[in-house]
């Protein structure tokens, strides 16, 4: 009898151990590996997280026609804890960094970083441009977010910077219920292939004295172009640059880009601009420091071809005004970015998507917090919310394209944090 009792107790003990093992919560990596169409690898990444993973999602080229083929999309996951919020860094290009972004630090959140289709590690085998549009990209992000929401069930926030900010807007337009809040940073919303509001901004931004000094510098460059061309040639040879439009036009473009770059990045003071009677070598050195010729270099352009395709066909761009320098230029029309695709037909722009998104922003969009810098050239085409009080826009006085929440004056920063706390229904430790 005692032996039988011992055997029964032993069997029950083994069963209890087995049952406990079965009911133990699965590790994060196990849960990730169970997601469909995903490969998982643990990497070092940002060591401020307790765990860090690199994921590759198998995505359809065409979400409405799976037979069109697939590609692998790179996604990074920084994990603190299942119960914490999730910030999704939606990239407009490739993934620039594995580190936590401003919002992730502010909210002490997990972070998901999604590379944009047709960039770097998320490149299809064949570059069929018809599958590169805001609807297909938003469907990519939707699939990733929905997969991870099976694991992380606290608050979800999307964010992105510049084109990543644009992409954040488009994702929310197509999938408004995917997340609780969105925070696009310095995101333009262009309404034309070459949006003329850029020119209006450059004609009014900052002080008249500074704008005049910028114009005088550009004018001095064009007047000294004969002496600057040999300098440009030597510079291009040293750096290994080549230009599909030719050296002289590349130099023209760099000079025309100067005013845009000056206000976009804000890293140059007006008093640092050389006077118009400065020798050509000093003019050139300053030019390439602010408006580098690599912006027009064929090799430098290759990683961003997908951006230019989108800009010229759907999300808009800007042009360079010729009239102010007509005496020194032979071009009949304002210069566009069609030089990026020198051997291809001119891309036709379809404004329908941007018009629809604009109408949505001014009517139905909600819990979107927009961050801009006042002097940033891209703020010329910032979202205009009109009467939509369900969203908020904050403009950092004299801020540039690098504007973040931490750069705002204390009272404005306090209001931003307060807005996020209200929308997320959670306290935020604002250090």
Polypeptide structure, described:
The protein is 39% helix and 13% strand. With 431 residues, it is α/β, with parallel strands linked by helices. It has 2 domains: 28-190 and 353-424, Rossmann fold (3-Layer(aba) Sandwich); 197-340, no CATH class. The strands form 2 sheets. It has a 7-stranded mixed sheet with strand order 1-2-3-5-4-6-7, with helices on both faces. The protein has a two-stranded parallel ribbon with strand order 8-9. The radius of gyration is 26 Å and the shape is globular. The termini are far apart. Residues 1-20 form the signal peptide. This is Peptidase. Keywords: Hydrolase, Protease, Signal.
Helix content: 25-40%
Estimate the mean pLDDT confidence. 94
How many domain regions?
2
CATH superfamily of the largest domain, called what? Alpha/Beta hydrolase fold, catalytic domain
H and E order? HHEEEEHEHEHEHHHHHHHHEEH
Classified by CATH, the class of the largest domain is Alpha Beta
Low-pLDDT parts are 12-23
- Sheet-strand content, in percent, reads 5-15%
Number of strands: 9
Main sheet specs: 7 strands, mixed
Distance between the termini: 69 Å
What CATH calls the topology of the largest domain is Rossmann fold
Strand order of the largest sheet: 1-2-3-5-4-6-7
Q: What would you say the CATH architecture of the largest domain is?
A: 3-Layer(aba) Sandwich
């Amino acid at each position: 009898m005692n032996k039988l009792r011992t055997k029964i107790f032993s069997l029950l003990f083994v069963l209890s151990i087995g049952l406990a093992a079965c009911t133990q919560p699965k590790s994060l990596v196990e849960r990730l590996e169970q997601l469909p169409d995903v490969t998982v690898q643990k990497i070092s990444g940002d060591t401020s997280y307790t765990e860090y993973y690199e994921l590759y999602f198998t995505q359809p080229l065409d979400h409405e026609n799976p037979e069109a083929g697939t590609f692998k999309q790179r996604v990074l996951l920084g994990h603190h804890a299942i119960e914490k919020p999730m910030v999704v860094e939606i990239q407009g290009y490739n993934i620039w960094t594995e580190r936590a972004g401003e919002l992730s630090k502010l909210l002490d959140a997990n972070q998901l970083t999604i590379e944009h289709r047709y960039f770097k590690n998320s490149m299809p085998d064949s570059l069929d441009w018809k599958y590169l549009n805001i609807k297909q990209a938003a469907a990519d992000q939707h699939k990733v977010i929905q997969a991870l929401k099976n694991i992380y069930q606290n608050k979800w926030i999307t964010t992105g910077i510049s084109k990543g900010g644009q992409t954040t807007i488009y994702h929310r337009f197509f999938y408004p219920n995917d997340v609780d809040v969105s925070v696009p940073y310095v995101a333009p919303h262009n309404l034309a292939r070459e949006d003329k509001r850029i020119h209006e901004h450059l004609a009014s931004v900052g002080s008249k004295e500074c704008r005049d000094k910028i114009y005088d510098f550009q004018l001095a460059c064009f007047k000294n172009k004969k002496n600057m061309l040999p300098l440009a040639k030597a510079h291009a040879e040293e750096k290994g640059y080549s230009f599909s439009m030719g050296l002289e036009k590349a130099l023209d473009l760099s000079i025309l880009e100067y005013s845009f770059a000056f206000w976009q990045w804000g890293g140059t003071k007006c008093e640092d601009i050389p006077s118009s009677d400065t020798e050509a070598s000093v003019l050139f050195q300053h030019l390439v420091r602010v408006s580098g010729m690599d912006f027009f270099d064929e090799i430098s352009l290759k990683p961003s071809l997908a951006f230019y395709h989108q800009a010229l066909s759907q999300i808009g761009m800007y042009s360079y005004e010729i009239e102010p320098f007509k005496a020194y230029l032979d071009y009949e029309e304002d210069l566009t970015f069609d030089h990026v695709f020198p051997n291809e037909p001119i891309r036709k722009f379809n404004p329908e998507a941007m018009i629809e998104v604009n109408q949505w922003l001014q009517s139905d969009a909600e819990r979107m917090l927009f961050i801009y810098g006042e002097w940033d050239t891209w703020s010329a085409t910032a979202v205009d919310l009109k009467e939509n009080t369900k969203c908020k826009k904050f403009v950092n006085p004299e801020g540039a394209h690098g504007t973040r929440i931490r750069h705002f004056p204390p009272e404005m920063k306090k209001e931003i944090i307060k807005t996020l706390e209200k929308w997320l229904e959670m306290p935020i430790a604002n250090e």
